[in-house]
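Open question from group meeting: does this chain pack into something compact, or does most of it stay loose? Before anyone orders reagents, we agreed to write out a predicted structure and look at it together. Recording both the input and the output here so the notebook holds the full record.
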Amino acid sequence: MAYVLEAEKMDLGEGTSAVGLELLEAETREPVTGETAAQIWFAVFPVPIAGESAAIDFFSHLDCVSDFCDGRGISYRQPAAVNALLAATACENAPAR
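Structure tokens returned:
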């Protein structure tokens, strides 16, 4: 199966760098889920933020995000019912599975 990682620059104001990322199955354009998605995201996250302070804000599949973080001891907070937020350093320091 082929996958596509789409990246879109987001304008959050002066002095803030932001990018929207979406991992999709190339043929169906559906979001990639499960262990395959976890492995790809875990490998991808350090790349765009290497050497920078960063946060990762999720707006969908929050149950999957919380299960992933809980299973790897990654701390996060869910400030609203529609998103989950974690520090990028939490991902970098988490044990791989």
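Observations to bring back to the group:
The chain has a mean pLDDT of 75.
Residues 48 and 74 are 19 Å apart (CA to CA).
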